[in-house]
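Subgroup meeting minutes
Present: P.N., E.W., G.H.
Scribe: E.W.

1. P.N. recapped why we're keeping a running log of single-chain structure predictions: easier to compare across weeks, and new members can see raw inputs and outputs side by side.
2. G.H. added today's entry (115 aa).
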Amino acid sequence: MTRDLFDTDQFLASLAQDRELADELVDAFLEDCPRRVMELAEALGAGDVGAGTKLAHSLKGMCGVVRADELSRLALEMEYAGRNGNLDLLRERFADFNESLARTRELMVRFRGNG
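Output recorded in log:
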């Protein structure tokens, strides 16, 4: 399951083992992701499916860059739910996303500490 949350081997391989770049990308993710999550929470609270769909799409890309596969999958499910106008499912997947994000964040912080 840890590999699904943050596959460090795959992540480093995708960057030709460039640890400095990996650290920069993880730092950018850890800094930017909470902002996007907050914006998505606000959009969902306001019932704005369009904004929620766009933010889910953005999160999907961010998670893909750092090889956080579980988060990417959940963001994709949020995006599809939004495109289908299913606000309830989007909210459900957002709750799942936040739960996985907390665990993924811990793995990323540990990864950065081992750099």
